[in-house]
Structure formats: structure tokens, C-alpha cells
Specification:
Mean pLDDT: 88
Radius of gyration: 17 Å
Shape: globular
Structural class: mainly alpha
Largest sheet: none
Strand content: under 5%
Number of strands: 0
Number of helices: 11
Helix content: over 70%
Distance between the termini: 12 Å
Length: 213
């Protein structure tokens, strides 16, 4: 069961069949698949939840999300076009680690441990690069034909951004409402502890999958 969960990652049978048999430019289908992958990509969304959890100003949210977008867009395109292979279990375990990292940072763990918090913008960019490799690794599993590949990847990437925008809009709506109540700060420690726990679980699934694969 664990290996199956580790490999699922939001790719259903219908999408899998399409990716394995598509030919030429398929802009709209790849746009849709990219959006769906991000909306159902709980690991990406948990990381972004941690990133924006304590960001109150819209320009800060835009800056950090842009850093993440730049990172994962670069490695998504580079990974597939240059055919750079990364073990899917390992890269997804690192993505789980990114969730742990952000929860730990939000809890002030680095300040207590190191006396300062690592540059959060650089951290978001670096983990964005790993998230992009995760997406690239998933696409590479289907050995997409070269005909129309670049255009299809651009469509997939645009879809990822649209899905990310949609998911973030809902997350921001909920957090903005929650921030008006005292329970936000009261339960912020619990929430980020749960975030770290979810990250450890994601890492565990992937590492067990790697061990038994």
C-alpha cells in the first residue's frame, strides 16, 4: 500500500493513459492536467500554506509565491527537456522535508537552534527548485513524445500556475478570516506542529517506498 501511495501523486488512470498515448501539441489537455496536479498536490499546497502562514501583506505573499514559481518552473522545464532523471521517491521525500522545514521555521525553531532564521526567500526558491524536479520526474515517467513537447510543457506549467493561484485563493480566504479571531495566534503553534507532522509522514511514505522499490 505504501509504494502505491508514494507513486500516486495525483495522476489518475485516465490522465496516465492520455500522457502515455498523446501526440503533437495538446495545449488545453496539458493546461488542465497541470492545474489539476497542483490543486490535488497536497505536498505542494502544505508547503505553500507554511510559506504564507505568517505573511500579512499582499506584496510579501506575491514575492514569496513568485520565488516559489520561478524555482519550480525552471526545474520543471529543465528536468524534462534535458532529461535529467531524479529518483521519484527521493525527490518527493525532499518535498516532504520542505514542509517540515517551513513548519519548523514558523515555530521559531531555527532562531532557537542557530540564533537566526535562514533567509526565507532563498529557502523558498531552493525548495521551489526541488518541487519543480518533482513535477519533472512525474512527467518523465510517461516518456512523452518530442513532437510538441516544449509547447505541451509550457501549457502544463501555465496550468500549474493557474491551479496554484486557485488553491492559494481558497487558502488565503480561510487564513484571512481566521486571523480576525484570537484562535489564530492561540493555535498557530499547534497548526505548524501539525504541518511538521504531515511533512514527516510524507517523508516516511517516500523513504519506505524507496527502501522497498
Amino acid at each position: 500500500m505504501v509504494p502505491e501511495m508514494a507513486l500516486a501523486h495525483g495522476v489518475d488512470d485516465k490522465t496516465r493513459v492520455f500522457l502515455e498515448n498523446n501526440t503533437g501539441v495538446q495545449f488545453i489537455p496539458f493546461l488542465y492536467i497541470g492545474a489539476k496536479h497542483m490543486v490535488t498536490g497536497y505536498d505542494h499546497l502544505l508547503f505553500l500554506l507554511g510559506v504564507i502562514f505568517f505573511l500579512y501583506r499582499p506584496k510579501d505573499i506575491l514575492l514569496y509565491v513568485s520565488m516559489f514559481t520561478i524555482g519550480h518552473s525552471l526545474t520543471l522545464l529543465f528536468g524534462v527537456i534535458a532529461d535529467v532523471g531524479v529518483n521519484a521517491y527521493i525527490i518527493d521525500a525532499i518535498i516532504g522535508l520542505s514542509v517540515v522545514y517551513k513548519g519548523f521555521d514558523n515555530l521559531g525553531g531555527f532562531k532557537r537552534l542557530l540564533g537566526h532564521s535562514p533567509n526565507p526567500k532563498i529557502a523558498v526558491l531552493i525548495f521551489g527548485l526541488f518541487h519543480g524536479f518533482g513535477l519533472a520526474t512525474k512527467i518523465q515517467e510517461f516518456s512523452l513524445p518530442q513532437d510538441g513537447l516544449f509547447t505541451n510543457l509550457i501549457a502544463f506549467n501555465i496550468g500549474v500556475e493557474l491551479g496554484q493561484f486557485t488553491a492559494l485563493a481558497f487558502i488565503l480566504l480561510i487564513i484571512s478570516y481566521w486571523r480576525r479571531h484570537k484562535s489564530f495566534l492561540k493555535f498557530s503553534t499547534t497548526t505548524n506542529t501539525l504541518l511538521m507532522s504531515a511533512g514527516f509522514m510524507l517523508m516516511g511514505y517516500q523513504l519506505v517506498g524507496f527502501a522497498v522499490s
